[in-house]
Write a structure and sequence with these properties.
single chain, 615 residues, alpha/beta, Alkaline Phosphatase, subunit A, 2 domains, 8-stranded mixed beta sheet, 5-stranded antiparallel beta sheet, Sulfatase_N, transferase activity, membrane, transmembrane, cell membrane
Length: 615
Protein backbone atom coordinates (compact mmCIF):
# COMPACT_ATOMS: atom_id res chain seq x y z
CA UNK A 1 0.00 0.00 0.00
CA UNK A 2 2.83 2.41 0.90
CA UNK A 3 4.47 1.71 -2.45
CA UNK A 4 1.19 2.43 -4.24
CA UNK A 5 0.76 5.70 -2.39
CA UNK A 6 4.30 6.80 -3.23
CA UNK A 7 3.93 5.95 -6.93
CA UNK A 8 0.61 7.74 -7.59
CA UNK A 9 0.69 10.95 -5.54
CA UNK A 10 -0.64 13.15 -8.36
CA UNK A 11 -3.69 10.93 -8.89
CA UNK A 12 -4.35 10.70 -5.16
CA UNK A 13 -4.00 14.46 -4.77
CA UNK A 14 -6.48 15.18 -7.57
CA UNK A 15 -8.92 12.54 -6.29
CA UNK A 16 -8.67 13.69 -2.67
CA UNK A 17 -9.15 17.37 -3.46
CA UNK A 18 -12.12 16.70 -5.75
CA UNK A 19 -13.71 14.35 -3.21
CA UNK A 20 -13.36 16.96 -0.46
CA UNK A 21 -14.67 19.73 -2.73
CA UNK A 22 -17.62 17.62 -3.80
CA UNK A 23 -18.59 16.86 -0.22
CA UNK A 24 -18.31 20.50 0.87
CA UNK A 25 -20.21 21.87 -2.14
CA UNK A 26 -22.95 19.23 -1.88
CA UNK A 27 -23.38 19.88 1.83
CA UNK A 28 -23.62 23.65 1.43
CA UNK A 29 -25.66 23.66 -1.79
CA UNK A 30 -28.34 21.01 -1.66
CA UNK A 31 -31.29 20.97 0.71
CA UNK A 32 -30.66 17.54 2.23
CA UNK A 33 -32.28 16.03 5.30
CA UNK A 34 -29.75 13.71 6.96
CA UNK A 35 -31.00 12.29 10.24
CA UNK A 36 -28.80 9.28 10.97
CA UNK A 37 -25.10 8.46 11.09
CA UNK A 38 -25.35 5.85 8.31
CA UNK A 39 -27.05 8.39 6.02
CA UNK A 40 -24.23 10.86 6.68
CA UNK A 41 -21.59 8.19 6.05
CA UNK A 42 -23.21 7.13 2.77
CA UNK A 43 -23.51 10.77 1.68
CA UNK A 44 -19.79 11.23 2.40
CA UNK A 45 -18.73 8.08 0.53
CA UNK A 46 -21.05 8.26 -2.50
CA UNK A 47 -18.91 10.67 -4.56
CA UNK A 48 -15.88 8.50 -3.79
CA UNK A 49 -17.47 5.51 -5.55
CA UNK A 50 -17.61 7.37 -8.85
CA UNK A 51 -14.24 9.07 -8.40
CA UNK A 52 -12.49 5.77 -7.66
CA UNK A 53 -13.68 4.38 -10.98
CA UNK A 54 -12.73 7.29 -13.23
CA UNK A 55 -9.42 7.95 -11.48
CA UNK A 56 -8.39 4.29 -11.32
CA UNK A 57 -8.95 4.00 -15.08
CA UNK A 58 -6.38 6.76 -15.50
CA UNK A 59 -3.75 4.55 -13.92
CA UNK A 60 -3.82 2.36 -17.04
CA UNK A 61 -2.62 5.28 -19.17
CA UNK A 62 0.94 6.28 -19.95
CA UNK A 63 2.42 8.79 -17.47
CA UNK A 64 2.53 11.61 -20.03
CA UNK A 65 -1.19 11.15 -20.65
CA UNK A 66 -2.21 10.65 -17.00
CA UNK A 67 -1.53 14.24 -15.93
CA UNK A 68 -3.77 15.90 -18.57
CA UNK A 69 -6.34 13.13 -18.06
CA UNK A 70 -6.67 13.94 -14.34
CA UNK A 71 -6.76 17.66 -15.06
CA UNK A 72 -9.53 17.20 -17.64
CA UNK A 73 -11.52 14.94 -15.30
CA UNK A 74 -11.14 17.44 -12.45
CA UNK A 75 -12.21 20.29 -14.74
CA UNK A 76 -15.26 18.49 -16.13
CA UNK A 77 -16.50 17.39 -12.70
CA UNK A 78 -15.90 20.88 -11.32
CA UNK A 79 -18.09 22.25 -14.12
CA UNK A 80 -20.80 19.74 -13.14
CA UNK A 81 -20.53 20.82 -9.50
CA UNK A 82 -20.46 24.53 -10.25
CA UNK A 83 -23.30 24.44 -12.78
CA UNK A 84 -25.55 22.65 -10.33
CA UNK A 85 -24.56 24.93 -7.45
CA UNK A 86 -25.43 28.04 -9.48
CA UNK A 87 -28.67 26.56 -10.83
CA UNK A 88 -29.72 25.36 -7.38
CA UNK A 89 -29.32 28.85 -5.92
CA UNK A 90 -32.44 30.04 -7.65
CA UNK A 91 -34.35 26.97 -8.80
CA UNK A 92 -33.68 24.54 -5.92
CA UNK A 93 -33.24 21.71 -8.38
CA UNK A 94 -30.61 19.64 -10.16
CA UNK A 95 -29.75 19.98 -13.83
CA UNK A 96 -31.02 16.82 -15.53
CA UNK A 97 -29.99 15.41 -18.90
CA UNK A 98 -33.24 16.45 -20.64
CA UNK A 99 -32.46 20.01 -19.60
CA UNK A 100 -29.39 19.91 -21.83
CA UNK A 101 -31.84 19.70 -24.73
CA UNK A 102 -33.00 23.14 -23.67
CA UNK A 103 -29.46 24.57 -23.86
CA UNK A 104 -30.44 26.33 -27.06
CA UNK A 105 -32.39 28.73 -24.87
CA UNK A 106 -29.23 29.81 -23.04
CA UNK A 107 -29.12 33.15 -24.83
CA UNK A 108 -32.52 34.05 -23.42
CA UNK A 109 -31.35 33.05 -19.95
CA UNK A 110 -28.25 35.27 -19.88
CA UNK A 111 -29.65 37.87 -17.50
CA UNK A 112 -30.75 35.14 -15.09
CA UNK A 113 -27.42 33.31 -15.19
CA UNK A 114 -25.30 36.40 -14.60
CA UNK A 115 -27.46 37.35 -11.65
CA UNK A 116 -26.68 34.03 -9.98
CA UNK A 117 -22.89 34.22 -10.31
CA UNK A 118 -21.14 35.43 -7.15
CA UNK A 119 -17.60 36.75 -6.56
CA UNK A 120 -16.76 33.92 -4.21
CA UNK A 121 -17.35 31.37 -6.97
CA UNK A 122 -13.65 31.66 -7.71
CA UNK A 123 -13.10 29.21 -4.86
CA UNK A 124 -14.71 26.49 -7.00
CA UNK A 125 -11.71 26.64 -9.32
CA UNK A 126 -8.72 27.26 -7.05
CA UNK A 127 -7.77 23.58 -7.00
CA UNK A 128 -7.70 23.55 -10.80
CA UNK A 129 -5.10 26.31 -10.72
CA UNK A 130 -2.95 24.18 -8.42
CA UNK A 131 -3.46 21.06 -10.55
CA UNK A 132 -2.67 23.06 -13.67
CA UNK A 133 0.55 24.29 -12.08
CA UNK A 134 1.56 20.71 -11.22
CA UNK A 135 0.66 19.66 -14.76
CA UNK A 136 2.95 22.33 -16.20
CA UNK A 137 5.90 22.10 -13.78
CA UNK A 138 5.80 18.32 -13.12
CA UNK A 139 7.42 18.46 -9.63
CA UNK A 140 9.05 15.17 -8.66
CA UNK A 141 6.96 14.84 -5.51
CA UNK A 142 3.72 14.36 -7.46
CA UNK A 143 4.59 10.99 -8.92
CA UNK A 144 2.81 9.42 -11.91
CA UNK A 145 3.19 5.78 -12.91
CA UNK A 146 1.32 3.42 -15.18
CA UNK A 147 -0.09 0.15 -13.85
CA UNK A 148 -0.66 -3.01 -15.88
CA UNK A 149 -4.16 -4.41 -15.57
CA UNK A 150 -3.06 -8.05 -15.69
CA UNK A 151 -0.78 -7.43 -12.73
CA UNK A 152 -3.42 -5.46 -10.81
CA UNK A 153 -6.58 -7.48 -11.42
CA UNK A 154 -6.92 -8.35 -7.76
CA UNK A 155 -6.69 -4.66 -6.81
CA UNK A 156 -9.36 -3.73 -9.37
CA UNK A 157 -11.54 -6.57 -8.07
CA UNK A 158 -11.26 -5.16 -4.55
CA UNK A 159 -12.04 -1.71 -5.97
CA UNK A 160 -15.18 -3.06 -7.65
CA UNK A 161 -16.34 -4.58 -4.35
CA UNK A 162 -15.72 -1.30 -2.50
CA UNK A 163 -17.58 0.73 -5.12
CA UNK A 164 -20.46 -1.75 -5.21
CA UNK A 165 -20.73 -1.71 -1.42
CA UNK A 166 -20.93 2.09 -1.34
CA UNK A 167 -23.59 2.21 -4.06
CA UNK A 168 -25.70 -0.54 -2.45
CA UNK A 169 -25.42 1.12 0.97
CA UNK A 170 -26.92 4.25 -0.53
CA UNK A 171 -30.05 2.33 -1.48
CA UNK A 172 -30.76 1.03 2.03
CA UNK A 173 -33.67 2.91 3.57
CA UNK A 174 -32.76 3.35 7.23
CA UNK A 175 -35.83 5.41 8.05
CA UNK A 176 -39.25 4.20 9.08
CA UNK A 177 -40.93 5.80 6.09
CA UNK A 178 -40.56 6.02 2.33
CA UNK A 179 -38.76 8.62 0.30
CA UNK A 180 -39.99 10.12 -2.93
CA UNK A 181 -38.25 9.15 -6.11
CA UNK A 182 -39.66 12.42 -7.50
CA UNK A 183 -37.46 14.45 -5.16
CA UNK A 184 -33.99 14.77 -6.63
CA UNK A 185 -32.55 15.92 -3.30
CA UNK A 186 -33.21 12.44 -1.98
CA UNK A 187 -31.55 10.90 -5.03
CA UNK A 188 -28.48 13.08 -4.48
CA UNK A 189 -28.39 11.97 -0.84
CA UNK A 190 -28.52 8.28 -1.71
CA UNK A 191 -26.43 8.27 -4.90
CA UNK A 192 -24.24 11.36 -4.88
CA UNK A 193 -24.08 14.07 -7.52
CA UNK A 194 -21.97 12.10 -10.05
CA UNK A 195 -23.80 8.78 -9.73
CA UNK A 196 -27.00 10.78 -10.15
CA UNK A 197 -26.12 11.37 -13.79
CA UNK A 198 -25.60 7.67 -14.40
CA UNK A 199 -29.02 7.09 -12.87
CA UNK A 200 -30.48 9.96 -14.92
CA UNK A 201 -29.03 8.47 -18.10
CA UNK A 202 -30.67 5.16 -17.19
CA UNK A 203 -34.01 6.94 -16.68
CA UNK A 204 -33.59 8.73 -19.99
CA UNK A 205 -33.07 5.46 -21.85
CA UNK A 206 -35.90 3.60 -20.13
CA UNK A 207 -38.44 6.42 -20.51
CA UNK A 208 -37.49 6.93 -24.16
CA UNK A 209 -38.23 3.29 -24.91
CA UNK A 210 -41.69 3.27 -23.29
CA UNK A 211 -43.41 4.47 -26.45
CA UNK A 212 -42.32 1.36 -28.35
CA UNK A 213 -43.76 -1.09 -25.82
CA UNK A 214 -46.99 0.75 -24.95
CA UNK A 215 -50.40 -0.62 -25.88
CA UNK A 216 -54.10 -0.10 -25.13
CA UNK A 217 -54.03 -2.37 -22.09
CA UNK A 218 -52.02 0.28 -20.22
CA UNK A 219 -55.22 2.34 -20.00
CA UNK A 220 -57.09 0.00 -17.67
CA UNK A 221 -55.38 0.93 -14.39
CA UNK A 222 -55.14 4.60 -15.39
CA UNK A 223 -58.88 4.77 -16.06
CA UNK A 224 -59.58 3.09 -12.73
CA UNK A 225 -57.50 5.75 -10.97
CA UNK A 226 -59.17 8.63 -12.81
CA UNK A 227 -62.64 7.22 -12.13
CA UNK A 228 -61.84 6.80 -8.44
CA UNK A 229 -61.17 10.52 -7.99
CA UNK A 230 -63.55 12.01 -10.55
CA UNK A 231 -66.17 14.48 -9.33
CA UNK A 232 -69.30 15.99 -10.78
CA UNK A 233 -68.59 19.50 -12.17
CA UNK A 234 -70.63 22.41 -10.82
CA UNK A 235 -73.87 21.98 -12.77
CA UNK A 236 -75.27 25.35 -11.62
CA UNK A 237 -72.44 27.09 -13.45
CA UNK A 238 -72.28 24.71 -16.40
CA UNK A 239 -72.25 26.77 -19.60
CA UNK A 240 -72.23 30.11 -17.76
CA UNK A 241 -69.69 31.43 -20.30
CA UNK A 242 -70.83 29.36 -23.26
CA UNK A 243 -69.91 30.91 -26.61
CA UNK A 244 -67.83 33.68 -25.05
CA UNK A 245 -64.31 34.60 -26.12
CA UNK A 246 -61.62 33.34 -23.75
CA UNK A 247 -58.52 35.33 -22.82
CA UNK A 248 -55.99 33.40 -20.74
CA UNK A 249 -53.26 35.45 -19.05
CA UNK A 250 -50.12 33.87 -17.63
CA UNK A 251 -48.88 36.10 -14.81
CA UNK A 252 -45.15 35.51 -14.83
CA UNK A 253 -43.83 34.52 -11.36
CA UNK A 254 -46.76 36.08 -9.50
CA UNK A 255 -47.35 34.41 -6.14
CA UNK A 256 -50.45 34.63 -3.96
CA UNK A 257 -48.67 36.26 -1.02
CA UNK A 258 -48.65 39.62 -2.87
CA UNK A 259 -52.43 39.68 -3.36
CA UNK A 260 -54.17 42.28 -1.14
CA UNK A 261 -50.81 43.22 0.41
CA UNK A 262 -48.78 46.42 0.43
CA UNK A 263 -45.19 47.62 0.28
CA UNK A 264 -44.29 50.98 1.77
CA UNK A 265 -48.00 51.60 2.23
CA UNK A 266 -48.77 51.05 -1.48
CA UNK A 267 -50.82 48.17 -2.88
CA UNK A 268 -48.74 45.65 -4.81
CA UNK A 269 -51.60 44.46 -7.03
CA UNK A 270 -54.33 47.13 -6.88
CA UNK A 271 -56.01 46.09 -10.13
CA UNK A 272 -55.99 42.36 -9.37
CA UNK A 273 -57.34 43.11 -5.87
CA UNK A 274 -60.25 44.99 -7.41
CA UNK A 275 -60.82 42.33 -10.07
CA UNK A 276 -60.97 39.56 -7.47
CA UNK A 277 -63.99 41.20 -5.83
CA UNK A 278 -66.02 40.56 -9.01
CA UNK A 279 -64.48 37.22 -10.00
CA UNK A 280 -64.15 33.59 -9.06
CA UNK A 281 -60.90 33.68 -7.10
CA UNK A 282 -59.09 30.55 -5.97
CA UNK A 283 -56.74 31.44 -3.13
CA UNK A 284 -55.35 27.97 -2.39
CA UNK A 285 -54.01 26.80 -5.76
CA UNK A 286 -50.46 25.47 -5.81
CA UNK A 287 -47.63 25.67 -8.32
CA UNK A 288 -47.16 22.21 -9.87
CA UNK A 289 -44.49 22.99 -12.43
CA UNK A 290 -41.32 20.99 -12.95
CA UNK A 291 -38.18 22.07 -14.76
CA UNK A 292 -40.15 23.52 -17.68
CA UNK A 293 -41.58 26.32 -15.52
CA UNK A 294 -43.85 28.56 -17.69
CA UNK A 295 -44.11 25.96 -20.46
CA UNK A 296 -45.10 23.36 -17.85
CA UNK A 297 -47.99 25.54 -16.73
CA UNK A 298 -49.08 26.05 -20.33
CA UNK A 299 -49.05 22.28 -20.70
CA UNK A 300 -51.19 21.79 -17.57
CA UNK A 301 -53.67 24.55 -18.36
CA UNK A 302 -54.19 23.22 -21.87
CA UNK A 303 -54.16 19.47 -21.09
CA UNK A 304 -54.80 18.87 -17.37
CA UNK A 305 -51.85 16.46 -17.31
CA UNK A 306 -48.90 16.86 -14.97
CA UNK A 307 -45.57 18.06 -16.37
CA UNK A 308 -42.63 15.68 -16.31
CA UNK A 309 -40.17 15.57 -13.44
CA UNK A 310 -37.23 15.81 -15.84
CA UNK A 311 -36.94 18.43 -18.55
CA UNK A 312 -39.95 20.03 -20.24
CA UNK A 313 -42.69 18.21 -22.16
CA UNK A 314 -42.53 20.93 -24.82
CA UNK A 315 -39.00 19.73 -25.58
CA UNK A 316 -38.98 16.03 -24.83
CA UNK A 317 -42.41 15.01 -26.24
CA UNK A 318 -43.36 17.66 -28.76
CA UNK A 319 -44.96 15.13 -31.12
CA UNK A 320 -47.24 13.35 -28.64
CA UNK A 321 -50.93 12.94 -29.33
CA UNK A 322 -52.93 15.05 -26.84
CA UNK A 323 -56.55 15.99 -26.08
CA UNK A 324 -55.92 19.72 -25.54
CA UNK A 325 -58.27 22.55 -24.76
CA UNK A 326 -57.33 24.80 -27.73
CA UNK A 327 -57.88 21.90 -30.11
CA UNK A 328 -61.34 21.23 -28.66
CA UNK A 329 -62.26 24.90 -29.01
CA UNK A 330 -60.89 24.90 -32.52
CA UNK A 331 -63.36 22.13 -33.34
CA UNK A 332 -66.15 24.35 -32.00
CA UNK A 333 -65.31 27.20 -34.33
CA UNK A 334 -62.97 29.19 -32.09
CA UNK A 335 -59.95 30.97 -33.53
CA UNK A 336 -57.07 30.02 -31.24
CA UNK A 337 -53.94 32.12 -30.79
CA UNK A 338 -51.07 32.72 -28.40
CA UNK A 339 -49.21 35.97 -27.77
CA UNK A 340 -45.64 35.82 -26.46
CA UNK A 341 -43.00 38.46 -27.24
CA UNK A 342 -40.17 35.95 -27.41
CA UNK A 343 -38.53 33.83 -30.07
CA UNK A 344 -40.93 31.30 -31.59
CA UNK A 345 -38.47 28.45 -30.99
CA UNK A 346 -38.20 29.14 -27.25
CA UNK A 347 -39.37 25.95 -25.51
CA UNK A 348 -40.26 24.55 -28.95
CA UNK A 349 -43.45 26.61 -29.02
CA UNK A 350 -43.34 26.80 -32.81
CA UNK A 351 -43.86 23.01 -32.80
CA UNK A 352 -45.92 22.31 -29.68
CA UNK A 353 -48.47 25.04 -30.37
CA UNK A 354 -49.54 23.16 -33.49
CA UNK A 355 -50.02 20.03 -31.39
CA UNK A 356 -52.03 21.96 -28.81
CA UNK A 357 -54.34 23.32 -31.50
CA UNK A 358 -53.34 26.96 -31.85
CA UNK A 359 -54.22 28.52 -35.21
CA UNK A 360 -51.64 31.27 -34.88
CA UNK A 361 -48.64 32.24 -32.75
CA UNK A 362 -47.85 35.94 -32.37
CA UNK A 363 -44.17 35.72 -31.43
CA UNK A 364 -41.41 38.33 -31.26
CA UNK A 365 -41.44 38.97 -35.01
CA UNK A 366 -44.92 40.46 -34.66
CA UNK A 367 -43.78 43.09 -32.14
CA UNK A 368 -41.64 46.19 -32.34
CA UNK A 369 -39.04 45.53 -29.67
CA UNK A 370 -36.53 48.28 -28.93
CA UNK A 371 -34.04 49.04 -26.20
CA UNK A 372 -36.49 51.53 -24.69
CA UNK A 373 -39.53 49.24 -24.49
CA UNK A 374 -37.76 46.06 -23.36
CA UNK A 375 -36.06 44.88 -20.19
CA UNK A 376 -34.67 41.59 -18.92
CA UNK A 377 -36.36 38.85 -20.92
CA UNK A 378 -37.93 41.09 -23.55
CA UNK A 379 -40.80 43.41 -24.30
CA UNK A 380 -42.26 45.18 -21.27
CA UNK A 381 -45.74 43.97 -20.37
CA UNK A 382 -47.56 47.25 -21.00
CA UNK A 383 -46.01 47.58 -24.47
CA UNK A 384 -46.77 43.89 -25.02
CA UNK A 385 -50.45 44.45 -24.28
CA UNK A 386 -50.69 47.61 -26.37
CA UNK A 387 -49.00 46.03 -29.38
CA UNK A 388 -51.11 42.85 -29.09
CA UNK A 389 -54.48 44.58 -29.14
CA UNK A 390 -54.56 45.43 -32.88
CA UNK A 391 -54.13 41.72 -33.65
CA UNK A 392 -56.83 40.78 -31.15
CA UNK A 393 -59.29 43.28 -32.60
CA UNK A 394 -58.90 41.74 -36.05
CA UNK A 395 -59.59 38.17 -34.88
CA UNK A 396 -62.67 36.25 -35.84
CA UNK A 397 -64.92 35.61 -32.85
CA UNK A 398 -65.21 33.58 -30.76
CA UNK A 399 -61.49 33.36 -30.02
CA UNK A 400 -59.27 31.69 -27.45
CA UNK A 401 -56.16 33.79 -26.86
CA UNK A 402 -53.29 33.22 -24.46
CA UNK A 403 -51.03 36.03 -23.25
CA UNK A 404 -47.67 35.19 -21.66
CA UNK A 405 -46.30 38.15 -19.70
CA UNK A 406 -42.55 38.61 -19.21
CA UNK A 407 -41.61 41.62 -17.07
CA UNK A 408 -41.98 39.93 -13.69
CA UNK A 409 -39.30 37.38 -14.50
CA UNK A 410 -36.19 36.67 -12.47
CA UNK A 411 -33.99 38.68 -11.88
CA UNK A 412 -36.82 41.25 -11.69
CA UNK A 413 -35.13 44.18 -13.36
CA UNK A 414 -37.11 47.28 -14.26
CA UNK A 415 -36.14 50.84 -15.11
CA UNK A 416 -36.88 53.28 -12.25
CA UNK A 417 -39.16 55.33 -14.51
CA UNK A 418 -41.42 52.27 -14.82
CA UNK A 419 -41.81 51.83 -11.06
CA UNK A 420 -45.34 52.33 -9.74
CA UNK A 421 -44.12 51.49 -6.24
CA UNK A 422 -40.68 51.77 -4.66
CA UNK A 423 -38.58 48.62 -4.15
CA UNK A 424 -38.75 46.90 -0.81
CA UNK A 425 -35.79 47.53 1.48
CA UNK A 426 -34.16 44.12 1.82
CA UNK A 427 -30.65 42.74 1.88
CA UNK A 428 -31.72 40.52 -1.02
CA UNK A 429 -31.81 42.44 -4.30
CA UNK A 430 -34.17 39.79 -5.66
CA UNK A 431 -36.71 40.32 -2.89
CA UNK A 432 -36.37 44.10 -3.13
CA UNK A 433 -36.88 44.20 -6.91
CA UNK A 434 -39.69 41.64 -7.00
CA UNK A 435 -42.45 43.95 -5.78
CA UNK A 436 -42.07 46.74 -8.38
CA UNK A 437 -42.10 44.22 -11.25
CA UNK A 438 -45.23 42.54 -9.88
CA UNK A 439 -46.82 45.99 -9.64
CA UNK A 440 -45.84 46.71 -13.25
CA UNK A 441 -47.46 43.48 -14.47
CA UNK A 442 -50.59 44.36 -12.49
CA UNK A 443 -50.70 47.70 -14.31
CA UNK A 444 -50.32 45.92 -17.65
CA UNK A 445 -53.38 43.78 -16.86
CA UNK A 446 -55.34 46.94 -16.06
CA UNK A 447 -54.35 48.32 -19.46
CA UNK A 448 -55.48 45.08 -21.13
CA UNK A 449 -58.92 45.24 -19.53
CA UNK A 450 -59.33 48.91 -20.46
CA UNK A 451 -58.32 48.20 -24.05
CA UNK A 452 -60.75 45.28 -24.22
CA UNK A 453 -63.55 47.56 -23.08
CA UNK A 454 -62.64 50.25 -25.61
CA UNK A 455 -62.64 47.60 -28.35
CA UNK A 456 -66.11 46.35 -27.28
CA UNK A 457 -64.62 42.92 -26.58
CA UNK A 458 -64.88 42.92 -22.80
CA UNK A 459 -68.54 42.02 -22.31
CA UNK A 460 -68.31 38.84 -24.38
CA UNK A 461 -64.99 37.57 -23.02
CA UNK A 462 -64.18 35.28 -20.11
CA UNK A 463 -60.79 36.08 -18.55
CA UNK A 464 -58.64 33.39 -16.94
CA UNK A 465 -55.61 34.66 -15.04
CA UNK A 466 -53.07 32.51 -13.23
CA UNK A 467 -49.63 32.81 -11.64
CA UNK A 468 -47.49 30.46 -13.67
CA UNK A 469 -45.00 29.43 -10.95
CA UNK A 470 -43.22 30.64 -7.83
CA UNK A 471 -41.35 33.92 -7.95
CA UNK A 472 -39.08 34.01 -4.90
CA UNK A 473 -36.88 30.91 -4.52
CA UNK A 474 -36.29 29.48 -1.06
CA UNK A 475 -32.69 30.68 -1.21
CA UNK A 476 -34.17 34.13 -0.47
CA UNK A 477 -36.63 33.05 2.21
CA UNK A 478 -34.56 34.42 5.09
CA UNK A 479 -34.90 37.89 3.59
CA UNK A 480 -38.49 37.37 2.49
CA UNK A 481 -39.44 36.32 6.01
CA UNK A 482 -38.69 39.88 7.16
CA UNK A 483 -41.45 41.13 4.87
CA UNK A 484 -43.83 38.30 5.72
CA UNK A 485 -43.31 38.69 9.45
CA UNK A 486 -42.81 35.00 10.15
CA UNK A 487 -40.20 32.29 9.72
CA UNK A 488 -40.48 30.30 6.51
CA UNK A 489 -40.43 26.72 7.78
CA UNK A 490 -40.77 23.70 5.47
CA UNK A 491 -44.56 23.75 5.58
CA UNK A 492 -44.71 27.52 5.13
CA UNK A 493 -42.36 27.17 2.16
CA UNK A 494 -44.96 24.96 0.49
CA UNK A 495 -47.65 27.55 1.21
CA UNK A 496 -45.51 30.14 -0.56
CA UNK A 497 -45.95 28.03 -3.70
CA UNK A 498 -49.55 29.21 -3.90
CA UNK A 499 -50.36 31.12 -7.07
CA UNK A 500 -53.44 33.25 -7.79
CA UNK A 501 -56.09 31.88 -10.14
CA UNK A 502 -58.79 34.34 -11.17
CA UNK A 503 -61.69 33.65 -13.54
CA UNK A 504 -63.65 36.75 -14.46
CA UNK A 505 -66.92 36.41 -16.37
CA UNK A 506 -68.54 39.79 -17.16
CA UNK A 507 -72.15 39.79 -16.07
CA UNK A 508 -71.55 37.28 -13.27
CA UNK A 509 -70.20 39.69 -10.68
CA UNK A 510 -73.03 38.86 -8.28
CA UNK A 511 -72.47 35.10 -8.54
CA UNK A 512 -68.69 35.36 -8.14
CA UNK A 513 -66.97 34.33 -4.91
CA UNK A 514 -63.60 33.47 -3.37
CA UNK A 515 -62.94 29.74 -2.90
CA UNK A 516 -60.31 28.26 -0.62
CA UNK A 517 -60.42 24.75 -2.08
CA UNK A 518 -56.95 23.22 -2.37
CA UNK A 519 -56.02 22.64 -6.00
CA UNK A 520 -53.34 23.05 -8.64
CA UNK A 521 -52.71 24.20 -12.18
CA UNK A 522 -54.16 20.97 -13.59
CA UNK A 523 -57.59 21.96 -12.20
CA UNK A 524 -57.88 25.07 -14.42
CA UNK A 525 -58.78 23.27 -17.65
CA UNK A 526 -61.76 21.26 -16.29
CA UNK A 527 -63.04 24.46 -14.62
CA UNK A 528 -62.88 26.36 -17.91
CA UNK A 529 -64.52 23.47 -19.79
CA UNK A 530 -67.46 23.45 -17.40
CA UNK A 531 -67.97 27.22 -17.60
CA UNK A 532 -67.94 26.97 -21.40
CA UNK A 533 -70.49 24.15 -21.27
CA UNK A 534 -68.15 21.65 -22.88
CA UNK A 535 -68.05 17.93 -21.98
CA UNK A 536 -65.15 16.40 -20.06
CA UNK A 537 -65.45 13.02 -21.77
CA UNK A 538 -63.47 14.18 -24.80
CA UNK A 539 -60.38 14.71 -22.63
CA UNK A 540 -58.11 12.73 -20.32
CA UNK A 541 -57.67 14.99 -17.29
CA UNK A 542 -56.19 14.59 -13.84
CA UNK A 543 -57.68 17.91 -12.73
CA UNK A 544 -61.16 18.51 -11.37
CA UNK A 545 -63.49 21.49 -11.59
CA UNK A 546 -62.40 24.02 -8.96
CA UNK A 547 -66.01 25.15 -8.66
CA UNK A 548 -67.35 21.65 -7.99
CA UNK A 549 -69.14 21.24 -4.68
CA UNK A 550 -68.04 17.60 -4.51
CA UNK A 551 -64.28 17.98 -4.99
CA UNK A 552 -61.96 17.18 -2.14
CA UNK A 553 -59.02 19.41 -1.26
CA UNK A 554 -55.93 17.93 -2.87
CA UNK A 555 -52.81 18.96 -4.75
CA UNK A 556 -49.53 17.17 -5.44
CA UNK A 557 -46.39 18.97 -6.53
CA UNK A 558 -43.77 17.66 -8.87
CA UNK A 559 -41.34 16.86 -6.02
CA UNK A 560 -43.97 14.67 -4.32
CA UNK A 561 -45.15 17.25 -1.76
CA UNK A 562 -48.87 16.81 -1.07
CA UNK A 563 -51.33 19.40 0.22
CA UNK A 564 -54.85 18.95 1.54
CA UNK A 565 -57.05 21.12 3.74
CA UNK A 566 -55.84 19.12 6.77
CA UNK A 567 -52.12 18.59 6.25
CA UNK A 568 -49.03 19.33 4.20
CA UNK A 569 -46.57 16.56 3.39
CA UNK A 570 -43.09 17.75 2.40
CA UNK A 571 -39.45 16.99 3.22
CA UNK A 572 -40.56 13.53 4.43
CA UNK A 573 -42.62 15.16 7.19
CA UNK A 574 -46.36 15.48 7.77
CA UNK A 575 -47.44 18.93 9.00
CA UNK A 576 -50.78 20.19 10.26
CA UNK A 577 -51.99 22.56 7.53
CA UNK A 578 -53.31 25.11 10.04
CA UNK A 579 -50.68 25.40 12.76
CA UNK A 580 -47.63 23.61 11.34
CA UNK A 581 -47.49 20.96 14.08
CA UNK A 582 -45.76 17.74 13.06
CA UNK A 583 -48.26 14.90 12.70
CA UNK A 584 -47.76 11.13 12.60
CA UNK A 585 -46.66 10.16 9.11
CA UNK A 586 -49.58 7.75 8.80
CA UNK A 587 -51.92 10.75 8.73
CA UNK A 588 -50.53 11.75 5.34
CA UNK A 589 -49.83 8.42 3.69
CA UNK A 590 -53.15 7.83 1.93
CA UNK A 591 -52.92 11.18 0.16
CA UNK A 592 -49.19 10.68 -0.47
CA UNK A 593 -49.94 7.35 -2.18
CA UNK A 594 -52.55 9.05 -4.30
CA UNK A 595 -50.06 11.74 -5.27
CA UNK A 596 -47.44 9.19 -6.25
CA UNK A 597 -49.90 7.35 -8.48
CA UNK A 598 -51.12 10.64 -10.01
CA UNK A 599 -47.61 11.56 -11.09
CA UNK A 600 -46.77 8.01 -12.16
CA UNK A 601 -49.85 7.59 -14.37
CA UNK A 602 -49.52 11.04 -15.91
CA UNK A 603 -45.85 10.34 -16.66
CA UNK A 604 -46.80 7.02 -18.21
CA UNK A 605 -49.30 8.74 -20.51
CA UNK A 606 -46.62 11.15 -21.70
CA UNK A 607 -43.64 8.82 -21.88
CA UNK A 608 -45.63 6.12 -23.67
CA UNK A 609 -47.67 8.54 -25.81
CA UNK A 610 -50.74 6.66 -24.61
CA UNK A 611 -53.26 9.19 -25.87
CA UNK A 612 -52.73 7.81 -29.39
CA UNK A 613 -54.76 4.82 -28.12
CA UNK A 614 -57.47 6.94 -26.48
CA UNK A 615 -60.93 6.57 -27.96
Amino acid sequence: MKKFLNQHRFMLFCLGVLWFKTFIVSTLTFNLTINQFLEALVFLLNPLAFLLIVFSLGLLLKPKIQRPYYFIISTLLTIVLYSNAVYYREFTDIITLPMLVMSGNAGDLSTSVFELIQWYDIFFFLDLIVIGYILAKKPAFFTVNKVLFRQSRSKYAVLAVVVGTIVVAGQIDTTDHRTHSFNRDNVIKSLGIYNFYIYDAYLHLTTSSQTVFADKEDWETINDHLDMYSVEPNRELHGAAEGMNVVVISLESVESFVINETVNGEEITPFLNELIEDSFYFSDVYDQTGQGKTSDTEFMVNNSLYPLGRGAVFHTHDENVLTPLPGALQDRGYFTASFHANDETFYNRNITYDILGYDHFYHIDYFDVTEDNSVGWGLKDIDFVEQSMPYLKEMDQPFYSTFLTLTNHFPYELDPEDHYIEPYDSESDIVSRYFPTVRYTDEAIRVLFEEMKEADLYENTMFVLYGDHYGIADSHYDDLSEYLGYEVTDDEAVKLDRVPVIIHVPGMEEEAFTADTVGGHIDIMPTVLNLLGMPEDDHVMFGRDLLSKERDDFAVQRDGSVITDEFIYTSETCFDADNGDILPLEKCMEAVNRGEWELYYSDKIIYSDLLRFHE
